Amino acid sequence: MNSPMYMNSVPVFKQMLTALKNILGKADAHILAKSIEPDALLQARLFPDMLPLLKQVQIAADFARGISARLAGVEIPAFEGKEQGFADLDELLTNTLAFLDTLDSASFHGSETKEIVLRPGTPKEKKLIGQVYLSNYGLPQFLFHVTTAYAILRHNGVEIGKRDYMGAY
């Protein structure tokens, strides 16, 4: 039997990261077709105090890896965060999806009651039970960054819509 914690995390991350990968491919094609400098999109923000597209994608991938690894009880794979272009972001998402493919449902059993400690040993340390961590913290954070990446691209003229955002399900 599949773990509900697995079913409510890994397949969601895979669906949305695959959709984000496809959206970024359309953005890359858009800049080529319109002769736009890649940084015009990669550094675009919805508002000056928000992070740019590049960082939104990196953070979404970080959340997908971190949440899944913590719940599965495995080491979080480290990525350097040195992506600079669309090809780098594509590779980051490919590697993140490959990591998610290594996780099996059995490793998530019991994670709903597992204590998850965020920012351990710092003044911002927070302890959450696995179910709360996934439902009330992790998924909303992940979806915020995926949605913001989508919104930045849509706002900047990349021809994408809801079907692109949702991906295959």
CATH architecture: Up-down Bundle
SSE arrangement, N to C: HHHHHEEHH
- Per CATH, the superfamily is dinb family like domain
Largest sheet: 2 strands, antiparallel
Terminal residue distance: 20 Å
Secondary structure category: mainly alpha
* CATH class annotation: Mainly Alpha
Radius of gyration: 16 Å
Percent strand: under 5%
Question: Would you mind describing this structure in some detail?
Answer:
By secondary structure, this protein is mostly helical. It has one domain: dinb family like domain (Four Helix Bundle (Hemerythrin (Met), subunit A), Up-down Bundle). 60% of the residues lie in helices and 5% in strands. The protein has a two-stranded antiparallel ribbon with strand order 1-2. Helix 2 packs parallel to helix 6 and helix 4 runs parallel beside helix 5. The model has no long low-confidence stretch (mean pLDDT 96).
